[in-house]
Write a structure and sequence with these properties.
Shape: globular
CATH class: Mainly Beta
CATH superfamily: q2cbj1_9rhob like domain
Number of helices: 5
Mean pLDDT: 96
Largest sheet: 8 strands, antiparallel
Distance between the termini: 35 Å
Length: 235
């Protein structure tokens, strides 16, 4: 079974329920060790990437990441295309709850055409690398007028074997409440699905919108590689 087929085989009803109840969901491992190693090997090939960001130069944290160039690696392209229709269903269910008029198409190609019309044409899938002492500050991945409300990330390294620490961090700022946080350990090949900016939560007077940010805690040892799938393109 290919990684894209594994995405299709996920229990999407259960994943949607997790996202709505706790603000994120974890899939079963969708990439095996060989696929993870192949992606990690790409990191040292600069011709596969369009830009490299050293986080400390921009006060983003410590560590670095690279955005893939076109054409995307076949596995990255296939994963992005297979996740999108499933996540679009959730996004369209959220839209009226967030009081948003726009709806998302059923296919990634249609959505990327909408991005193109807004001059957002640069691919945003990326790989991140952390070594001991590195971390990623809380942030949101917004690159233009169009922003798809969900994204995914897959840890390619082996937790507790290749690295220690480096938990995925997710915070929610609810109105008139203290910030709520999650520190999530992700096993090799698992994808975490999470909001890139907002999500709706039911309240006593109807739905309200909460602000969401994500990051990575300090790596205590080793090396941690991560694949990030963002569905809107950048300017």
């Amino acid at each position: 079974m290919t990684p894209a087929e594994r995405v299709e085989s996920c229990d999407w009803e259960a994943l949607a329920e997790q996202i709505n109840e706790q603000g994120y969901a974890l899939t079963q491992p969708l990439l095996d060790e060989s696929a993870c190693s192949q992606l990690i090997d790409l990191y040292s090939k600069p011709d596969r990437f369009r830009s490299r960001v050293i986080m400390a130069r921009h006060n983003f944290g410590r560590g670095e990441y690279q955005y893939f160039a076109e054409p995307l690696p076949s596995i990255v392209k296939a994963l992005r295309k297979s996740f999108f229709p499933r996540l679009a269903v959730i996004a369209n269910e959220w839209a009226p709850r967030l009081k948003q008029k726009d709806r998302f198409p059923a296919s990634l190609d249609e959505f990327l055409e909408e991005c193109r019309k807004k001059h957002q044409e640069l691919p945003t899938p990326l790989m991140l690398r952390y070594v001991r002492g590195d971390y990623n500050c809380l942030h949101q991945d917004l690159y233009g007028e169009i922003a798809f409300p969900l994204q995914t990330a897959c840890v390619l390294s082996r937790n507790r074997r290749d690295y220690e620490g480096g938990e995925f961090l997710l915070t929610e700022q609810r109105p008139r409440m203290q910030t709520r946080g999650h520190a999530i350990s992700i096993e090799q090949g698992q994808f975490i699905i999470f909001p890139n900016r907002w999500r709706p939560v039911a309240g006593s007077r109807g739905d309200y919108r909460i602000n969401v940010r994500h990051g990575v805690s300090t790596l205590r040892a080793g090396n941690r590689y991560c694949l990030g799938l963002i569905f809107h393109n950048a300017k």
